[in-house]
Amino acid sequence: MMAAKRIRRGTWLGAAAIGAAFALASPAMAKDCGAMTGLALDKGKVTAATLVAPGTFQPPAGFGPPPGIANSSYKALPAFCRVQATLTPTSDSDIKVEVWLPAAGWNGKLVGIGNGIWAGNISYAEMALTLAAGYAVVATDTGHTGTGLTAEWAVGHPEKVVDFGSRAIHLMTVTAKAAIKDFYGQAAKYSLWNSCSTGGRQGLMAAARYPEDFDAVSSKAPANPMTDLMTQSMWAGYQAHRTPGSGMTPSLLAFVHKAAVAQCDSVDGTTDGLIARPGACRFDPAMLGCQPGQTSTCLTPDQVATMKALYAGVLDPKTGRQILPGWPVGSEMQMAVLMMGKEPFPVATDYFRLLVHGNQPGWDWMAMDYPAEMQAARAYGAKMLNVTAQDLQPFFARGGKLLLSHGWTDGLIPASNTIKFYGELQQVTPKAAQESQLRLFMVPGMDHCGGGEGASNYDTLGTIDAWVSGGPAPDRIIATRGGAATGPAMPGAPVLPPLSRPLCPFPAIASYKGSGSKDDAASFSCTIVS
């Protein structure tokens, strides 16, 4: 059995997925790959269809394997039919789509792959590793080209925002299903979604808007609700500029993180350098305040206030009431990404400046009225960009499976958002569906979509594949750690020893049985701690 392979933004193809890849006999091709240029698409056109020989695929410039993925990822690819299409549902749309179809060994299933932040490119690395496991795979740039960090492409182009929000993913899925039927002469047995961050939100949106598109969705660290996340990101960036002395350096954030782990690690019953119950720990950064005469390795009063504001979440300044969740204790190591620039995180700054406020000269992010700005952000984009718990009920009604997961140390998208969303799902989803079609797994020590100090490598695709193929709802997922514990804020982090842990359905946590190695998942059971 092949070893697990990592996909950028935290998607993993492990033994379960790869084993499932060859469970079905490979259907014979119904036509030559080159003939796929004649595939009829509604408001779109196949621009190229090429049979790619084994190991010869070359991604466009700038799309080589990301950090953590071997350079041999593309060289290991089997032969496949690469179908490229451009979709134009409106006169302002220009949606690029790629469908990769195994020339042999197709397992009869389709996987949709998502994007990061503002999208703007096709996720070739994720496509490659998914294809290598025997799946047909599809991805899109969502209708524009860009770095993903800025939103200038959306100014004056409201239809492109609709494409980004939901339409491009739906149409790429329709295109992929048509291509599969044409190429193999039969439909895919199951369609699965597997992605993280913006990709996690895209999976939720697909399930909400088009319940028939996918049979199971893995949504890791979903950027949902997106408009509220933009407000939270602005809040975090503002705290670092609130006063001349309120900023936090990566070294100071690491100092706070070390203190948080020291206090909160054992709250979950196991002293292992990981925080599994951040909500149960009353960590106060004031304990790190500078004493008289102390000028380093401590926090000034302004810096203490910055950390408290990040943990507390977005507050109404008039009432002190929380209006949006904050970041859990332990997620400090990546927070620098949101606070180190001259302005807040550019994804959020562009959302407010360019889209919500139309690039008006008088808008000042330093003077934001957060309750009013939260509502303005929703008024502009909620219908296009947010998914509510109620929106997913038709998906559950047709039998769809939803796997949510999030790292507790994610410093970019607060894990608290996914906890809140899961609670909302529990309120409106029928009990039977909750038991058999819905799961949330929280991951101690996992940063945004992967990496970090914990066991963050786990097989989301194999999990939903087994689930939708008739297996029971997952009650345990094995996660492993190996290599450097890295995150966007802390490059060059130390190499940590191997570790395996069970991930447990929330609110259960992995509890040490009292014997055996604490580095071995077999030494832990899933328990609910009051």
Molecular structure report:
This protein has 530 residues and is of the alpha/beta class. It has helices at residues 15-21, 124-132, 158-184, 198-209, 226-239, 250-264, 301-312, 336-339, 346-356, 370-385, 393-397, 415-428, 431-437, 460-468; strands spanning 5-7, 11-13, 44-52, 80-87, 95-102, 109-112, 136-140, 190-196, 216-220, 314-315, 322-324, 401-407, 438-443, 477-484, 495-503, 509-512, 524-527. The strands form five sheets. Strands 3-4-5-7-6-8-9-12-13 form a nine-stranded mixed beta sheet, with helices on both faces. Helix 4 links the parallel strand 8 (190-196) and strand 9. Helix 3 packs across helix 4, helix 5 crosses helix 9 and helix 5 (226-239) runs antiparallel to helix 10. The protein is globular. The protein starts with a strand and ends with a strand. Residues 1-25 and 484-491 have low confidence and may be disordered.
Structural class: alpha/beta
Mean pLDDT: 91
- How much beta, percentage-wise? 15-25%
Helical amount: 25-40%
Q: What would you call the shape? A: globular
Q: Please count the beta strands (DSSP E, at least 2 residues each).
A: 17
Distance between the termini: 40 Å
Which regions have little confidence, pLDDT < 50, spanning 5+ residues?
Answer: 1-25, 484-491
Largest sheet: 9 strands, mixed
Strand order of the largest sheet: 3-4-5-7-6-8-9-12-13
Tally of helical runs: 14
Rg result: 23 Å
